[in-house]
């Protein structure tokens, strides 16, 4: 099994890349945040960025690997030859990807204004359209965001995503040539 971890700040293009790779190469896409989203649904709470950040405190109560263990269980159940994992926010999540024998880490970067505009347009979380640019910048310092840039130098592949999807997909195809 090949495991590709994709790291980047919010709205940098992680899930876009993951869905593209999964579709093109018959892989499975998971995100660390899907566990949080599942919990928010069960609790009948809005799927907002702020609520997801609050749920990250489960790591403090049940141990830092509680969300990783849940995600690994989903990966094992997939029985897939290609897994693409997004939403890597913490050191132990990166280490978990590296534990898989055949792994690659992609770091995706994008300018902050571009990311803000993408988030506003996609409306993925209940608070995406109502978040001001100032609040977007503040949230960059949340526990889930503050360490992301430090992972760039540990990635196998770095992709800059400030253009359109077609340009991004060309970069992804070039980066993965011979790997999949």
What does this structure look like?
The chain is an alpha/beta fold and 180 residues long. It has one domain: Rossmann fold (3-Layer(aba) Sandwich). The chain has nine helices and five strands. The protein has helices spanning 14-25, 32-42, 49-55, 58-62, 66-78, 91-99, 112-122, 133-139, 165-176, and strands at 2-8, 28-31, 82-86, 102-109, 157-160. A five-stranded parallel sheet has the order 2-3-1-4-5, sandwiched between helices. The longest helix has 13 residues, at 66-78. It is globular. The chain starts with a strand and ends with a helix.
Key attributes of the depicted protein:
180 residues, alpha/beta, Rossmann fold, five-stranded parallel sheet, 9 helices, globular
In short:
The protein is an alpha/beta fold and 180 residues long. The chain contains 9 helices and 5 strands.
